[in-house]
Amino acid sequence: MKRKVYIDVNNLVYSEALTGIGRYVRNLAGQLHQLEEPELEMVHHYFGLFPVDLNRYGFNSKSIESLRVPYDWQFSRGFNRLFNAWCRIKSFKEKCLYHGTSFILPRFEANVRKVVTVHDLAFLKFKGTESAGMTRLLTEKLKFSVSAASRIICVSGTTESDLLKYFPMAEGKTRVIYSGAEQAQQIDQERIEEVKSINGIRLPDNFLLFLGTMNKRKNLILLLKALEPLKGIKLVAAGKPGNQTLEIKSFLRAAGLSRRVIIAGYVDDIQKKILYRKCRALVVPSLDEGFGFPVLEAMSFDVPCLTSDAGALKELFSATALTFHSQDEGDLREKLVQVWNNPGLRQRLVKAGRNRLSDFSWAKTARQTMDVYKELLL
Known about the structure:
Layout: E1 3-8, H1 10-14, H2 20-34, E2 40-47, E3 64-67, H3 80-89, E4 96-100, E5 112-118, H4 122-125, H5 132-148, E6 151-154, H6 157-166, E7 174-176, H7 189-194, E8 197-198, E9 201-202, E10 208-211, H8 220-227, E11 235-238, H9 245-255, E12 261-265, H10 269-278, E13 281-284, H11 293-300, E14 305-308, H12 311-317, E15 322-324, H13 329-341, H14 343-357, H15 362-377
Parallel strand pairs: 1-2, 1-4, 2-3, 4-5, 5-6, 6-7, 10-11, 10-13, 11-12, 13-14, 14-15
Antiparallel strand pairs: 8-9
Helix pairs in contact: 2-15, 8-13
């Protein structure tokens, strides 16, 4: 009889907008189902009161199982005891495995092998990433997950190092498995030319692109300060609102940048790919990243990349992107001018990106993840 592997897809069920973790879950779960492993059965698992339709992600409804308890209860202290009791109701008679794809493991029975993926430790490394209460709760949950897990998948060596620093009990459990790169979707060039606006906001003819949530870790303020005296350069910043949205908008007004910097809001996959096709370069000024999906995505669209030297960006892309110090406004300004004015440089970065892209694939990520499952179950 096949042994079941329960893959946590709660991030897809309860997130209206896919972030990097959502893309990890979607692509990994999809690729795992395509692997032929005669002794293991992949099951998409979520906590919820009602059945959900995940067909939009290409998942077969027969592969979806739920534990009918609200997912949000695991983030509430008042419901913790009830949540844990409900988790134990689901009886696993045979040896199986549960993969928590986004930091957190439930308190399953002892006969369940457990794997958890850790994407970054930003909420611990950068004060203000989350509220004080949420930081304490996430720390408590991650501490339990690290203790309970048989294996911990880290999406980069940087994340592994951070995890071992904050949670030394993870020693000997970690495996670094890089995430994959999505293939560039072919979009008709005429259609791209016809697109003049995103979310009702008119796009400039030439622009640099920033993609990310408007929070302090993404470091958009430094990019705006570096951009301020460069009168000929325009920027489109796309992403969900975050803990720095008000500060960003206030700075734009005070610096008189409102006409040169477009705040486009959250963009869906099609809109994002159009932005990649139309931009001159992608700029990633983050103070820290656990991986760096936008860089890989941009490289798949032959977009040159300018990134900070922080976190996994340095680990993964220092040889393929133009880099600057994550807190050096002058260094960033100098590199902005270079990437904007030098077509030869942009072409070299595109070529380097193509070469680096071949090192990342979701099929490879899935195979390495499957090896972890087999190590624990077979």
